[in-house]
Write a structure and sequence with these properties.
Layout (H helix, E strand, L loop, with lengths): L7 H23 L2 H4 L4 H23 L8 H27 L2 H8 L2 H14 L5 H18 L8 H25 L5 H16 L12 H26 L4 H8 L2 H12 L6 H31 L1
């Protein structure tokens, strides 16, 4: 029998998952900039959005990619989603600055649980999947164990509260994007939302960009391009063919990645609770990823 090969359309969801795993690792690296860049969270967020928008604009201009959105409703959805995204970014960095990288990332990674609960009834008119809720419980248990790790330093309660608020905003932005920004490419979404973030926070910067040192500019350029434009474009692309719940759980891998990077770069060494919690998050994330791949394979066979 001739070998059966899957079509590019059938391979699409699988490649989207690979892209999401890469995005999770890159976003884990993003957390380090909250400590490495000597600026307030608002300044980091505004400059990050502007740099990412300029980088994407240049790339899209070279590729002659369209800049205009398909319709007026897309502009409205982009505006609301961009505002949610801007405040999410700022609160995420602030959570890590008032506590630690581990606390901020742990708090943010409650968003898979939030998404798993609200996506099916909002977008699919059905109850949540049992396996999603089970994986959500695993993620919740894992991040709780990391949050209970002793000796983390900083204001842990405040960091967790701000981080969870950031997670709520991120979940809402992802769901809005999946529902109302269909037909919009990943680079387009990040271009608009990065530019909007820069415009929103520009009047409130505490330091003029011209006063920043070369080292700070170097870190900001790295953050705004490699660690922002690339992973968020991959996430946006993944949201077009995968459920927001699957995207959320895959991105939960940021917890162990960020914990490891913080230990290597910042000296924030994880203890046994953090290691156990990270293992639970990885297991839950891989479980949901495997279920998504199996479901996609079943759909391909049925077609």
């Amino acid at each position: 029998m001739p070998e059966q090969r899957s079509s590019p359309d059938q391979q699409g969801p699988q490649w989207d998952l690979y892209g999401l795993h890469l995005a999770a690792f890159m976003l884990a690296g993003t957390a380090l900039f909250a400590k490495l860049v000597p600026l307030p969270a608002l300044d980091i967020t505004g400059l990050r959005g502007g740099i990412a928008a300029v980088a994407l604009l240049l790339v899209m201009a070279v590729r002659r990619a369209p800049l205009r959105l398909p319709s007026r409703r897309h502009y409205l959805a982009m505006l609301v989603g961009g505002l949610l995204f801007a405040v999410h970014w700022m609160t995420y960095f602030h959570a890590m600055q008032v506590s630690t990288v581990a606390v901020g990332v742990v708090a943010l990674l409650t968003f898979p649980v939030i998404t798993a609960v609200i996506e099916p009834p909002l977008l699919q008119q059905r109850p949540p999947h049992g396996y999603a809720l089970l994986a959500g419980l695993g993620v919740l248990t894992g991040v709780t164990l990391i949050g209970l790790e002793s000796g983390l330093g900083g204001n842990v309660p405040l960091g967790l509260a701000v981080g969870v608020f950031s997670a709520v905003l991120y979940s809402l932005r992802n769901l809005l994007q999946k529902r109302f920004l269909d037909g919009v490419s990943g680079p387009q979404v990040m271009l608009y939302q990065g530019a909007l973030t820069a415009l929103v926070f520009a009047p409130f910067l505490s330091v003029s960009p011209s006063e920043l040192s070369a080292g700070t500019w170097g870190l900001m350029l790295l953050l705004g391009t490699v660690f922002t434009a690339v992973p968020h474009t991959l996430i946006t692309h993944g949201l077009r063919r995968l459920s927001a719940t699957t995207v959320s759980f895959t991105l939960a891998l940021q917890v162990p990645y960020a914990t490891l990077l913080a230990a290597l770069v910042l000296g924030e060494t994880p203890g046994p609770l953090a290691l156990t919690g990270g293992a639970l998050v990885v297991a839950a994330s891989l479980f949901v990823t495997a279920r998504q791949r199996r479901d996609a394979a079943r759909v391909a066979v049925a077609d």
